# Entry
Amino acid sequence: MKDVLIITSYFPPETGAASNRMFHLAEGLQKENYKVSVITPLPNYPTGKIFPEYKGKFKHISVENNITIIRLWLYASNSKNKFLRLFAMFSYSFSLIWFFLWNKIPQTVIVQSPPLLVAFTNMFFLRSKNRKLILNVSDLWPIAGLELGAFKKNFSYRMLEKIERLNYKKADLVLGQSEEILTHVKTLFPNKNTFLYRNYPDFEVSKIEFQNPSEQKIKLVYAGLLGMAQGIYKLCEQLDYTNLEFHIYGAGAEQAKIEIFIANHPELPITYHGEVTRKELHQELLKYDLTIIPLLNRIYGSVPSKIFEYARLGLPMLYFGGGEGEDIIKRHDLGWIAEAGNYEALNNEISIIKKSDLSLELKEKIRKTALDKFDFNHQLSRLKKII
# Structure
């Protein structure tokens, strides 16, 4: 039985795409007869506070579904203060180094990036111990940070670029969730071994619910992080509600603003449902006609994992983010597209969608596409051959 260690900054019970991605990878490898262990911080995302059941602990070890999970201390923060965020990353890096000094590390290690500094700690320290290092890149930092307006092209940005390159250089294999990520890596290191590892979900699917096409408005839903990059607050302001009701699930930095906006505009058909578990969310989403996947700005290398999750649920999509995600929606006929950041184009697209277009037949077709084209186990079997 081959030992594999996964090092990640996000893992359940935390929610979100990164947490789900690493959980499915760990679970998938364990089912394929790997001995899997995971190192991750004490749960704190997205609140920036250690979850109550883990408070006061410096290390927590558990075995869940035959996976050993080692949770290490960090200074938790989601503050907008860059120095506090940086200190939070450094604190986890220090905990990792301390763990490496006193514990045996498996020969094969999968490292999640970003955060860049945490990934660099792993790549630098473990490379000297002659481990096979696999870097799983889910977003292109610092490029994504620049496009989001979080960074400027200054000395700090150039330092992050150097760290990014060192991470790629030290990796024996780079996994990327998008073709754009792999193209970027190959541009810097043409001979680097790479593998396209999409964030395909792996869950049992429920029967698709029939929605009566004669019912009034289209039920549009957004579920996920309510952060600056998604722009849900601006979406609430800009949507044309003539033929629409809007439902929101999730939590994040814009949550309070969204709740205030809804309270101040009771005439608008917007409902905020709060945050629910992933399993509960899958059942809730089956009630809706259409989902929206927005990004405030097109981010190079980013492919929202929601595309694959919603396709598996058979949920038609309205994609509003540009880039490679837009190409996937088009190629597999998963829904509708509006130019990223163009709210007039978005409302025009919504106006041409009829309730009857969102039929049971369409939903079943989307689900079939997902089961055929976005198969987690098939992807994992190919990955096994190279790790």
Summary: The radius of gyration is 21 Å.
